[in-house]
C-alpha cells in the first residue's frame, strides 16, 4: 500500500526572512517583546527567540522552532528577566531551517553579552566570512548575521560604539537590525533602507520594531522611522543617534507595500492598506472588465481587491474563504490530486460564483502553480468567466535583499509572456498593474527598490560578482 507523502505547503508566495523587536528601559521587556513578536509573526514562521539582559548583565535566551505561541510558555517567559530584550521571528531558505540558525544570536563578548537580531541579507557575507575564517574566526551557523558578530568582536577600535560602527561600515546589502552589547541597545538600517525599522516609546521605554503594528499591540507610541543609514544607541530607554553610515540613495523595498507588511502598519511614511487600495484602483483603471463581482485571494490581497471594486463600481464579495489553520506541513491523502493543497487552503462560496463573471485580485504571481489550481477550483464552482488581476507587475528577477524568492528560471513572469501566463492559468483574461501605475499610486513615498520587477539592483551584489552561488536570502 502506498503511504501518504508529507507535502511542504508551498503557497507560491515569496517569504520575508524575519521580524525584529527590541525594548530598552522596561521591567517587562521580555513580555513586551513576546507580544511584539506575535504582531510580527507574518514576517517569519519557522523559528522565534528572545534574549533578555538583566541589571547584573546576565543574558538569558530562549529560542525554538515554530510559531511564537509554540516556542514560549509561562516557564520560559519567567526565566527571561531584565529591562532590555531583543526578539526575532525567522523564515529561512530551504535546507537552513534548524535551531542553530534561530535568532537572536547570543555570544559572550569581552564587554558583556552580545546579542543580534537581523532582518535582511548581506551581499558580501561570503567575502567577509572567507576573510574572517582565514584570520581564525570559527562560525557556528551558516547565517549571514553571524558575520556581524565576528566583525564587532574582532574590531580593533577602542570603544564599544566604535566597534559597532566599524562592523556596520564593512557590510553591504540589506540590514535592519537590533543588537545589544552589555546594557546598551543599538538599532541600525542600511544606507538604502531596504527593510523597515521603526522607533517607538512606551512610558520610559524605547522600542524598536520592524513594523508599527508591533507597537500597536503593546500600546506604544510611534515616534518615527529609523532613517536609512542611521545607527541609534539606546541605554535605559534614552535614545541618541550615532555617526551615520556612508550615504547612498534610499531604496526601500516596494514589495513590502505590495505583500509583506501587515495592512494595519505604516511603512515608508504611508499606510499599507491605503497603498494597496491605490494599487487596486489603478489596476481597475488599467484593466477594466464587465463583471458581476470582485473578490480577493485572501488575505494579503484584500485591500487591493477593495480598491479595484471601489474604482470599477463592481460589487466586492467574500467569495473565497481561506483556511488559516493549515500550517506549513500536511499529509497528502493520495499521491495524485495536484490541486489538493489549494483545496486545503481555499474554499469558494459557490452561491457567489456559480454562473457569474468574476474578477479575482491577487497581489502578485510568482510561479503560478497555486493560481492555476485556484482557477481550476473556481471553474469547478461554476464560474462563467474568470478575469485574473494582479496588483503588481510581473516578477522577473530574484531578490537578494531579504526576500526568499525563487530563481529566475522558476519565475513565471521571466519565462512566459503575459498572454502565455493567462493561457497557463486557464483564465478568460489576465491583467497586471503596470510599473508606471504602481509608482504613481505611491507617488511621493519613493524612490523604491524595484529590482524584482526591473533587475536594477540598488546595492552591489559583491558575492555574486565574485562567483559565489548565493541564496536569494540568508539571514
- Helix tally? 18
Low-confidence residue ranges: 1-10, 328-338
Oligomer: single chain
Round the mean pLDDT to the nearest integer and report it: 91
Major sheet strand order: 5-4-6-3-12-11-13
- Structural class, by secondary structure, is alpha+beta
Distance between the termini: 41 Å
Instruction: Provide the helix percentage.
Output: 25-40%
CATH class of the largest domain: Alpha Beta
What descriptive keywords fit this protein?
six-stranded antiparallel beta sheet, 475 residues, Glutamine Phosphoribosylpyrophosphate, subunit 1, domain 1, 2 domains, Rossmann fold, alpha+beta
Textual characterization of the structure:
The protein is α+β, with helices and mostly antiparallel strands. It folds into 2 domains: 8-251, Glutamine Phosphoribosylpyrophosphate, subunit 1, domain 1 (4-Layer Sandwich), CATH 3.60.20.10; 271-454, Rossmann fold, CATH 3.40.50. The protein is 28% helix and 25% strand. It is built from 18 helices and 25 strands. It is globular.
Amino acid at each position: 500500500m502506498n503511504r501518504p507523502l508529507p507535502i511542504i505547503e508551498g503557497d507560491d508566495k515569496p517569504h520575508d526572512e524575519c521580524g525584529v523587536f527590541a525594548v530598552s528601559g522596561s521591567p517587562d521587556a521580555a513580555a513586551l517583546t513576546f507580544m511584539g513578536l506575535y504582531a510580527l509573526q507574518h514576517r517569519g514562521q519557522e523559528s522565534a527567540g528572545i534574549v533578555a539582559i538583566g541589571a547584573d548583565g546576565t543574558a538569558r535566551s530562549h529560542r525554538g522552532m515554530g510559531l511564537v505561541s509554540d516556542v514560549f510558555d509561562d516557564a520560559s517567559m519567567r526565566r527571561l528577566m531584565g529591562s532590555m530584550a531583543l526578539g526575532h521571528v525567522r523564515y529561512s531558505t530551504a535546507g537552513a531551517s534548524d535551531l542553530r540558525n534561530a535568532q537572536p544570536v547570543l555570544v559572550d563578548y569581552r564587554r558583556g553579552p552580545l546579542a543580534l537580531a537581523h532582518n535582511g541579507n548581506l551581499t558580501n557575507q561570503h567575502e567577509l566570512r572567507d576573510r574572517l575564517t582565514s584570520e581564525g574566526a570559527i562560525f557556528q551557523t551558516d547565517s549571514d548575521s553571524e558575520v556581524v558578530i565576528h566583525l564587532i568582536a574582532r574590531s580593533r577600535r577602542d570603544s564599544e560604539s566604535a566597534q559597532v560602527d566599524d562592523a556596520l561600515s564593512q557590510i553591504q546589502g540589506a540590514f535592519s537590525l537590533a543588537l545589544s552589547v552589555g546594557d546598551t541597545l543599538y538599532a541600525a538600517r542600511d544606507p538604502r533602507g531596504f527593510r523597515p525599522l521603526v522607533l517607538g516609546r512606551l512610558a520610559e521605554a524605547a522600542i524598536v520594531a520592524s513594523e508599527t503594528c508591533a507597537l500597536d499591540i503593546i500600546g506604544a507610541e510611534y515616534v518615527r522611522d529609523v532613517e536609512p543609514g542611521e545607527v541609534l544607541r539606546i541605554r535605559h530607554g534614552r535614545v541618541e543617534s550615532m555617526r551615520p553610515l556612508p550615504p547612498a540613495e534610499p531604496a526601500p523595498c516596494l514589495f513590502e507595500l505590495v505583500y509583506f507588511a501587515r495592512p494595519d502598519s505604516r511603512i515608508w511614511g504611508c499606510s499599507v492598506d491605503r497603498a494597496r487600495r491605490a494599487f487596486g484602483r489603478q489596476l481597475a483603471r488599467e484593466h477594466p472588465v464587465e463583471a458581476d463581482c470582485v473578490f480577493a485571494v485572501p488575505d494579503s490581497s484584500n485591500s487591493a481587491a477593495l480598491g479595484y471594486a471601489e474604482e470599477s463600481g463592481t460589487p466586492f464579495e467574500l467569495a473565497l474563504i481561506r483556511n488559516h489553520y493549515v500550517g506549513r506541513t500536511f499529509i497528502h491523502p493520495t499521491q495524485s490530486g495536484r490541486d489538493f493543497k489549494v483545496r486545503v487552503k481555499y474554499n469558494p462560496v459557490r452561491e457567489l460564483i456559480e454562473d457569474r463573471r468574476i474578477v479575482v485580485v491577487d497581489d502578485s504571481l510568482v510561479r503560478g502553480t497555486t493560481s492555476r489550481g485556484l482557477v481550476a477550483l473556481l471553474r469547478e464552482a461554476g464560474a462563467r468567466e474568470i478575469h485574473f488581476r494582479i496588483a503588481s507587475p510581473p516578477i522577473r528577477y530574484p531578490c537578494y535583499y531579504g526576500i526568499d524568492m525563487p530563481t529566475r528560471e522558476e519565475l513565471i513572469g521571466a519565462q512566459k509572456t503575459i498572454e502565455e501566463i493567462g493561457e497557463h492559468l486557464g483564465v478568460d483574461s489576465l491583467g497586471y498593474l503596470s510599473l508606471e501605475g504602481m509608482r504613481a499610486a505611491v507617488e511621493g513615498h519613493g524612490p523604491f527598490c524595484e529590482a524584482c520587477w526591473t533587475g536594477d539592483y540598488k546595492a552591489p551584489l559583491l558575492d555574486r560578482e565574485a562567483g559565489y552561488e548565493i541564496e536569494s536570502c540568508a539571514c
